[in-house]
Structure formats: C-alpha cells, structure tokens
Amino acid sequence: MDAFTHLETIIADYGLYFVFLGVFLEGDTVVIVAGFLSHQGLLNPFAVAGTAFVGTLINDQGLFFLGRHFSDSRIVRKQKQRPIFAKVLGMIERNSNVFILAFRFLYGLRTVSPLALGVSNVPASRYLLLNVIAAAIWAPAVTGIGYCLGLALHGTIGDLPKIEHKIAAALAIAVLSAIVIHLIARRVRRAT
Question: What are the sequence ranges of the domains in the chain?
Fold first, then answer.
C-alpha cells in the first residue's frame, strides 16, 4: 500500500473528525475542502454537512456561553478591547435577530460575534433557536460550495483518477479558499 492509498483510507476513516475539529479553527475552508472531497467520493456530503452543523453549533454556543457567564475572563476581556467588538455590539443592538442569522457569513466576525452576543442582553433561548437555524443554512451551503467546485473541476478537466490528484486539487482549493476568505474578512473588518 503506497502513501497516497494510505491517505485515502485516513480521509475516509477520519475525515469527519477533521471536519468537526476544523470547524473550530478555519471552518469555511475545512468544510469547502470536505465538500470537494465528498464530490470525489472520499466523504459523504450529507455526513460532511451534518458534522459541520454540529461543530459550528457547539463552537458558537460555547463562545456565547463564555461571553454570557465568563465576561470577566481574560479571553473575553481581550476581545472586548478590540474596536470591532463595540461595532459588533452596535450591530446586535440594531437588529439582533438578523445579526444572529448572518454573522456566520460575515467573515472576520466569526469569533467575536458569539462572544458579543453572550455579553449582550439577547436571551439565550432566542440565540439558541436562531443559531440552530443559521447553522442549518451555513453547513449545507458551504459543503455545497465545495461540492460544486468538484463539479466545476470535473466539467473542466474530467475525473481526477488518482488519489494524489484529488489531494493536490483539495490542497489548491484549501489555499484559494483561505486567501479569498481572508481578503473578504479584511474588507468586512474595514467596513465595520
């Protein structure tokens, strides 16, 4: 068994664990790549979306809980000192429901938003309900982006016959996704 075949087995056996953990770190990029790998037949797209849903929900609920119950902790105090924190609180005050549904898609605000929502006076039950709805939209949408990239690549160059080609394409998609998300996040931070 060569190294690439072994890598294919690792992806099939542990890919969803990587998706779950990856959502906590670089969620969009990880889920886009997992969506692409699902198009390539290495992961189940429904399992990827479900895992991303659970991971993002746990992450955002945890950050909300941290902001709500540990607002004097060093982590939350550090975030409160950032200028973006006050801007996010302002957005929450203007329309908290829309903000809860949208912050997951506002790159550059992903970590600070649930913390700010926890510090705000948004009821925890309303946050939970809207957070579930937003996660249920985000997870399949981002998985679908990766899957569609796989479709587009297939339409352009055909099947990627070997695992090493699939891995190379997945790495290229990861790099491009990370760059695009970083540029969008920087623009969002400047605009807010």
Answer: 3-191
